[in-house]
Specification:
CATH architecture of the largest domain: Alpha-Beta Complex
Largest sheet: 6 strands, mixed
CATH topology of the largest domain: 2-enoyl-CoA Hydratase, Chain A, domain 1
CATH class of the largest domain: Alpha Beta
Radius of gyration: 19 Å
CATH superfamily of the largest domain: 2-enoyl-CoA Hydratase, Chain A, domain 1
Low-confidence stretches: none
Number of strands: 10
Mean pLDDT: 96
Number of domains: 2
Shape: globular
Distance between the termini: 32 Å
Length: 258
């Protein structure tokens, strides 16, 4: 079913590897559709609690497929952008946490894909950038919107206007990634973070993701009202009773996602 993706699931953790190394994992319509199908499948898989997304070879995703895009009409380009946005929105809206393990180049659509994930952990060899203006276009998978929300408006404009490519250390300094690790430690660190998240209540993690994502752009009082409603949902779950009882009894927690 999947020709450009590999999936491994181990004890509730899914690792998805983009495997188009001959093209530096560049995004074309076919790969975008495979990613959308994969994340839909993982969203609906009750056994999967968290997801790590990474790339094979030297790149996470080096960008969109320029050769394919150069031949597109405006309508075809628009259709590609709509497909790309539907993928990014799917990752962002699914309750399960998604960690981008950025192994190498994350440029253009690759940077946008990483920004749609909840957490970004980068190898020290990773590179980030939105070089679209140098090609006479603009980011088309959410880069003009998610980048300012992560690094601030002025820094985002600087990166978007100049098409500069930055290294992992600089990306961490400006808040584009959460942690930088040696190349050989990337997947170990990503899995360690995923397992720490998975030790917590899965419903609670999903509700936190929704509260942060949905509340971020709301006025403060509306956002705090949203928090109250989501906390009420949390109080109605068996996980709430289990988590608090385990704390009182000083024992391990056994969440059931109910």
């Amino acid at each position: 079913m999947y020709t450009m993706l590999k999936k491994e699931v181990n004890e509730g953790l899914a690792i998805v590897t983009i495997d188009r190394p001959e093209a530096l994992n560049a995004l074309n319509n076919a790969l975008l559709q495979e990613l959308k199908d994969m994340f839909t499948e993982l969203r609906d898989d009750e056994e999967v609690r968290a997801i790590i997304l990474t790339g094979a070879g030297k790149a996470f995703v080096a960008g969109a497929d320029i050769a394919a895009m150069n031949a597109m009409t405006p309508i075809e380009g628009r259709e590609m952008m709509i497909l790309g946005h539907s993928l990014m929105d799917l990752i962002e809206d699914m309750e399960k946490p998604v960690i981008a393990a950025v192994n190498g180049f994350a440029l253009g659509g690759g940077c946008e894909l990483s920004m749609a994930c909840d957490i970004r952990i980068a190898s020290e060899k990773a590179k980030f950038g939105q070089p679209e203006t140098g090609l006479g276009i603009i980011p088309g998978f959410g880069g003009t919107q998610r980048l300012p929300r992560l690094v601030g408006k002025s820094m985002a404009k600087y990166l978007l206007f100049t098409s500069d490519v930055i290294d992992a250390e600089r990306a961490e300094q400006i808040g584009l990634v959460e942690k930088v690790v040696p190349v050989g430690a990337l997947m170990e660190e990503a899995e360690k973070v995923a397992r720490r998240i998975m030790a917590n209540g899965p419903i609670a993690v999903g509700l936190v993701k929704k509260a942060v994502n949905k509340g971020y752009d709301l006025p403060l009082r509306e956002a705090t009202s949203l928090e109250i409603e989501l906390e009420t949902v949390a109080f109605s779950t068996e996980d709430k009773t289990e988590g608090m009882t385990a704390f009182q009894e000083k024992r391990d927690k056994h969440f059931q996602n109910k």
